[in-house]
Amino acid sequence: MPLSKSSHPARVHSNTALFCFELGDDDVARLDALDRAKAGAISWNPVDIE
């Protein structure tokens, strides 16, 4: 986890509050639906050498 470089307590709290959330089942399902497997890959995978 990156450390905040701010010295203001309110900003430090705000920066760490970023991680205080939960995804519901519907949100996770929507994210999973975005998966396009290899067709959506944006980089070369050395495991897939033919």
Automatic annotation (TrEMBL):
It comes from Rhodonia placenta. It comes from the Eukaryota. InterPro entries: NAD(P)_OxRdtase_dom_sf. This is Uncharacterized protein.
